Structures are given as structure tokens and as C-alpha cells.
Amino acid sequence: MRSLRVSALTLTCLICVVLTASSAVTQFAPDYTPPGFEGRTGEITFANDSLYSVNVTLWHPSNGKRFATWKIAGQETPRLFYDGRPIVVGDDWGVQLGNSKVRPLSQFAVWDKDNGTFKTSIGLFHGK
């Protein structure tokens, strides 16, 4: 049996190539056409009423690119932050839970006009 010697640098470069190729594949929202902007902008809270963590991804409506992903722990309801501040988005942004289909925020979020906040949850996303 032959042993294969691979340097740490070679292995690191191989991992970088795989990760870069992987990110490029998921850069654009599959099958997502944003609706027209309805005029609402605000912060987002996301209620994960399940026992398990879920990845929440926001997709930008202008260019169809993934904006950011948050891992929300089970039984948590955080306000989504980006660069240390609550993120403010329009009602035409796309939302994806895990590997689900991307849905427009306007189709399932509850709009809290008094606080300028989109209130979302796993249940609302799935129509419950």
C-alpha cells in the first residue's frame, strides 16, 4: 500500500477552490422573481418556534443575489442585524428557510406599522 503525502498548503488550496465554487453556485436565488415594491421598509424579527436551528437567508430584489444568512436557534425570536445594526429591508426582498423555495417578504410577514417592523416566523412562512 502506498502512502500519499499532501502538504498543508496544497490541502488548503484545494479546500479554497471547493468552497469558492460552492458559493458561486448558490449566489443567485433559484426561480425567484421579486414582486413589485409595495412601499414598506423596516426591520425584521424572526420567530423560530421550532426546537431546532434554522438558516434564514435574505435575497436582494434588485440583483437576485444572496445578501446574508443568519442561523436562528430554536425557540428564539431575534431581530436580524447586519454590520452591528438592525437590517432595514423592503417588502420585496426574498426570504429562504434552509433549502426552501425563496418567498417574498410581503407574502407572509406581518407588518407592524407602529414599530416599522416585519414580523416573521417559520409558521407564517409555511402559511400557518
Question: What does this 3D model show about the protein?
Answer:
This protein has 128 residues and is of the alpha+beta class. The protein has one domain: Immunoglobulin-like (Sandwich). It has two helices and ten strands. It is globular, with a radius of gyration of 18 Å. It starts with 7 loop residues before the first helix and ends with a helix. About 16% of the residues have low confidence.
Topology:
Layout: H1 8-25, E1 41-47, E2 54-59, E3 66-72, E4 81-82, E5 85-86, E6 89-90, E7 94-97, E8 103-104, E9 110-112, E10 117-121, H2 122-125
How would you summarize this macromolecular structure in one to three sentences?
This protein is of the alpha+beta class and 128 residues long.
Keywords summarizing the entry:
2 helices, alpha+beta, single chain, 128 residues, Immunoglobulin-like, 4-stranded antiparallel beta sheet
Following the backbone from N to C, one meets helices and strands in this order, namely HEEEEEEEEEEH
- Report the principal-axis shape: globular
Query: How large a portion of the residues is in β-strands, by DSSP E?
Result: 25-35%
**What is the subunit organization of this protein?**
single chain
